[in-house]
Amino acid sequence: MRSLAGQVFVLQAVLVLLLVVTAVAALLVQAGSSAEEEARRRSVAVAEAFANSPGLPEALRSENPTESLQPLAERARERSGVDFVVVMDTDGTRHTHPRPDRIGERFVGTVGPALEGETVTEEIVGTIGPLVQAVVPVFGPDGSVVGLVSAGITVDKVSSGVQDQVPLLLGASAAALLLSVTGTAVIGRRLLRQTRGLGPAEMTRMYEHHDAVLHAVREGVLIVGADGRLVLANDEARRLLDLPPDAEGRSVTDLGLPPRTGRLLSSGRAAVDEVHQVGDRMLAVNHEPTDRFGGPPGSVATFRDSTELRVLSESAEEARRRLKLLYDAGTGIGTTLDMVRTAEELAEAVVPRFADFVTVDLADAVLRGEEPAGGTVTMRRVAAHGIREIPSFYPTGKLIAFLPSTPQGQGYRAGQAVLEADLATAPGWQEQDPERARRIVEEGVHSLITVPLRARGIALGVVNFWRTREHGAFDDDDLSLAEELVARAGAAVDNARRYTREHTMAAALQRSLLPRALPGQEALEVAHRYLPAQSGVGGDWFDVIPLSGARVALVVGDVVGHGLHAAATMGRLRTAVHNFSALDLPPDEIIGHLDELVDRSDRDGDGDGTPDGTSGMMGATCLYAIYDPASRSCVVARAGHPPPALVHPDGTVEFPDIPVGAPLGLGGPPYETAEIDLPEGSRLVLYTDGLIEDRGRDIDVGLALLGEALARAGDSPEETCDEVTGALLAERPRDDVALLVARTRALGPDRIAVWDVPSDPAAVSAVRGGVTRRLADWGLDELVFTTELILSELVTNAIRHATGPVRVRLLRLERSLICEVSDTSSTSPHLRRAATTDEGGRGLFLVAQLSERWGTRYTGNGKVIWVEQPLPRD
């Protein structure tokens, strides 16, 4: 052993000397070839590692591979130090690239051998200089090539490190020579000391020990010679690859290995953690040539069983997909308060990710907003969605009475999900409609999960998940996922059901509070429109109220908010307006009384003043106008409401300047009025803010559009309503809209008679005579007697009890005759029961008996007592 150590010392000294002398020259010569080889190795390693990434085949089959692969490829490029990592399909079309503008273009390079399952390396000159690129295949679960991965790196990037070391190597060569000779001597002495003078026998035993370790490791090892024959296989390799006993010495292509594995072992190319399927195992293969660092020709391969890791990865991926489905369903179901749309969203969320077809059936009472009666299994199909048409399914809208033996009947009654893994052998399901069930099975549907749609412990309907031959049957894991999906949809459907119930109640309340028909009057030709908001019933309202003296009040109001409370507030305000109008008050006083009413209601409603916790009447706006056909004037007051529009007989449009007060309930200065002259045939347009305001436009734009629509509209109020709503409103407006269009009529001088009466009882007879002649001219001789009695009583009382001038006015309308007596007194007569001994007090009683209606209204100068008599029928 000492002689051997001396020989080793001499040999090592000579070798070190030669290496030191030739190091610089060899480094420069080998720099180029080493750089190319290193570039080849690194590009192949990066491409192989990315191609065998878990989930890559699934990503290539997705609808948008670039979205998921581009960030992964860029991260791999940055961490590995290569210049590019490109993922492409089998046609060579890029899905990833460092320059996104080149994604979708064809790959420049050789891809043919890679499509056959081989790895291709080539040297090219690209836009970034000479480079080495590798193209490796991506294999699917069945071993077929489903895509390609290419990685490349420039030679300069690899060789730059070696070239940078040349100056340092030149400076250290002399010192390295001395150290090497000294080190060789030290190593020789240490070798003698460490081997302790062992001879050939001892070295043999050491080799046997190393061989035993090789065969005992839990990783398969194969050594292949330069001729492609198996040199050595340890026990783990024999087990994993199921090698025959006489495998050693045979060609690796004759060992019964999968073709892809055999090609790798005989090719001599390097591979790092390349996944191969051998039998029912997934093996991670590492393959390296043995002569790369001066060893004998051939290669060594290691095999590691990754089947369990693959199964765990697939299980984790399946769990991720299910969680993603639940998340998407949670965010995509219940976006509206519409039960049918919610059912459709559930069906769209799970097809085809979980089921091939989904049908949703709800109890009829649920669709009306009610809770279903216990025990009923009659439901209406509201949604059906699938990967294709299945004609034999019940159509949407069909009312279905499920038998108790069906999965739907069982699940609905018991409140539990039912799984039918094989519909062809499910007798309960087939009993519902045997012929239809046979056709459904023939069309490929083979598995069903029925889950009751429940909320707050109440069954609202059932959801049916169906699978066809394209996918496997449902199992217990699918059952729990289906229950979770339906549970999330159940809350959304119940919210929509309760909204439907509240909306129905509010709509019924609103219909009962809005005027069903406009009252008869002769001063205006009126048309109206009411359009509820998309979000539900609101508080917009309108009214037409006949007043004394042939006058008519037009009212439009808007209550803030939607729902029952807004509708109830609207009803209270409308009732209050009717009551105040009965007092014949001017518009500003009526608006003032409404303001006090809302303010008082708000104060009374603070805290717990209202059962639902709301606060009073809520905010509101109102516009009140009184039109007098005798004077053709209109007096208007408004509280926070948009101004009216006026269309003149010649078609010109204007928005009169009406003083605006604060909305109702806010208080502030007294409300003001404005008087507008309306020629006969003018159109007065009242509306709520929902007509002109929108999120996408300013109020000034809305007013301009309204003016343009009114200028185009026809003369009749109905045509005006149609033109305005068609031009300004969407199919389902965001806010309530009330529109009132009134075309004015006028009482001509031939239908009005006026007398000024002196304060002398003797003048009454002259008035009676004038009235008699005028009634005769109007052809109302039948009313002469009653009219003389009424005027005699009213004029006599005015002369006797009032002060100042007295005026009598007759108005002949189409259906009535109005007699008015005005004076300057603010004292109003009142009807009373006269005692038998009283000499007076029966005049107003006679007036009330002889007329259809009578009353008193106050003016700025006094009062007017009016009496209305119906005209005799022809």
UniProtKB/TrEMBL annotation:
Its main location: membrane. Residues 342-503 form the GAF domain. It is found in: Cell membrane. SUPFAM superfamilies: ATPase domain of HSP90 chaperone/DNA topoisomerase II/histidine kinase (SSF55874), GAF domain-like (SSF55781), PP2C-like (SSF81606), PYP-like sensor domain (PAS domain) (SSF55785), Sensory domain-like (SSF103190). It comes from Streptomyces glaucosporus. The lineage of its organism: Bacteria, Bacillati, Actinomycetota, Actinomycetes, Kitasatosporales. It comes from the Bacteria. This is SpoIIE family protein phosphatase/ATP-binding protein. Residues 208-273 form the PAS domain. It is a multi-pass membrane protein. Gene3D superfamilies: 3.30.450.40, Histidine kinase-like ATPase, C-terminal domain, PAS domain, PPM-type phosphatase domain. Keywords: ATP-binding, Cell membrane, Hydrolase, Kinase, Membrane, Nucleotide-binding, Phosphoprotein, Transferase, Transmembrane, Transmembrane helix, Two-component regulatory system.
